[in-house]
Fold this sequence. Notes:
Blueprint: H1 13-25, E1 45-47, E2 55-57, E3 66-68, E4 79-80, H2 81-106, H3 116-145, H4 151-203, H5 209-217, E5 220-226, E6 243-248
Parallel strand pairs: 1-5
Antiparallel strand pairs: 2-3, 3-4, 5-6
Helix pairs in contact: 2-4, 3-4
Amino acid sequence: xVYDGLHEAIIDDEVYQKTQELLARNxxxxxxxxxxxxxxxxxxxxCGKCGRRMARRxxxxxxxxxxxxxxxxxxxxxxxxxLVEEKLMQVLDQWLNDYKVQLENSRYKGNITIDPxxxxxxxxxxxxxxxxxxxxxxxxxxxxxQGVYTTDKFLERNKILNEKMKTAISDKESLxxxxxxxxxxxxxxxxxxxxxxxxxxxxxxxxxxxxKNKLLKExxxxxxxxxxxxxxxxxxxxxxxxxxxxxxxxxxxxx
Length: 255
């Protein structure tokens, strides 16, 4: 429904329409060309001391780009950007291998190989049983009030039904946990593992930092960076003496 305004318009309709036409012909790009991504790790690396996003620091002198914490008071030591990038891919590859082993080990724990449909049917059956127990518990109070049950008989039946309810709840929780494991396993096999493998395979062949950044964000939420001692240029082993903790995109569990 359309209603007339209560106040006089600041500009008339003709001026408004002409303004919209001008704006439509002069659309500003969301990301200006001068601000294209030059850091493949942009917004992914988090300082392990202050929690801020690490930033790329270029040098006009020809020195290699560094990855630094933008907080001047933070003493997290910077590193060459290319070293962090290389180590990140190594850690991601190691995480993938460990994840595959963990997934394989979980197959044989807690009857993980059971058909999920069987588990879902069992859960539905337990729900019906618990609904029956609840109705029986409600009836107990009616029978007590009507004098059909004595107090002792009521307490006895109440105890039995509550024990059955407790067992049913425990069994349902156990089955739901199995479903969660199955869901995680299926999602990992069909989505997570292939996606990470694809990132590792493609990454080294890319030259565009923006494409690299987009690829990494498909599998990583963030990476925590920590370095406590400065490296020695004369000792290459000290230059990559930093710690990276990965936070990958893990599958959501759907029951």
